[in-house]
Amino acid sequence: MSLFKIRQFWSTTSEDDEYFDHNSLLVAKINSDFDYVVTGSQSGVLRIFCPNCEVSENGTYAGFNPNDVIVEKILDHPILQVGSGRLVSGNSATQLAVLHPKELLVFSLILKPGKTQHGNQSYLQLVYEHKLRKSSANFVIGPFGESQNRDFVCVQSLDGILSFFEQESQISYVALPDFLLPGPLCYVIKTDSFVTVSSSWEIVSYRYKTLAEVAEESGDPIHLKQKISTEWAYNFGESVIDLQVISDVINKEAWIVVLGEKNLLCLSENGRLKCMKKLDYSPICMETYVIDTNLFTLVTAETNMLLVYENTMLKWSAHLDFLPTAIHRAFLKGIRGTLVLLSDEGRLECCYLGTEPSFFVAPPVSVPEIDFEKAEHELLALETVISKSNNN
């Protein structure tokens, strides 16, 4: 139990019939100098927020304002994941990718400054869409093949098919070997490789070049399982909750952070163990970032606790008001390093680590006064009973 408590300065709640998971939250700079907060519910509602960080006259933050909702769009299908990247050919702007069970949509955020007191006008414009042959699970966005100034999309299906989309066109399919259930998928820019989890609880890495060559040789993988050689594999030995890749700019290397049910570990880009921390609680989600050359990891626990690790050392812990299913670090307009939390029922909060202790004061216990004369009579009576029983 921590003495400290997370302090929230902005919060909002979605409708009662909306549900979210760890892929439903996105924090990204969409053609701006600050981060937007994007949520996509399993009911098909897509929202983009620009949290208000203005300070009121009494020195506190103003909190949520209806104008903080930049866009709210109701789509026809459940939203499985949201992402962002440079996904339109010949355009260096950042677009928004939305994954449905059977299609992938790419939107452009259009912002028009208002000329009256009614404010700015914002809306999402559909750029293109891809129909998916298999039911999707998640996706990852990155400059596959060391491409410059453009990003591609890799969609993982429920049965282990990776579908690669080169912006407006689809280029290949690849079936993952040793596949049982879809797991976390991430892309390492430095090595141009994909990292995921196999059915034998191994962290495995596949080079994009290898996947592309296998796709060209075997053709359609829907009915044919190809044999793909891994770049490296690490035997983790437990199920993986989340995988994240973080870049160390100073040392020019990439770190792969793995959150398991019982352990938190960090691997190098070549699959070598850098550090490992055994957890004595049940983790829910995590967020990673690097300051100088130190790796910081934020982990939320099932006991409504947020724990901050520097490498493997616990630096801070704070109590949460609710149990989040996703956590991100945001650089909002006016505030840097904000924590964005999202619950599975749609509670969205922007918080910071409070340093003011939240003490719990136990209520005073009412103790009745002792009547010594009455207690002495009771003691004599008990001694008489004991002596009689001993004589008998």
Automatic annotation (TrEMBL):
Any single GO CC term annotated in Swiss-Prot or TrEMBL for this entry: BBSome
Domain PTHB1 N-terminal per the UniProt entry, residue ranges: 1-357
Coiled-coil parts of chain: none
Pfam families (UniProt xref): PHTB1_N
GO biological process per UniProt: cilium assembly
Superkingdom of the source species: Eukaryota
Protein name: PTHB1 N-terminal domain-containing protein
Organism: Dendroctonus ponderosae
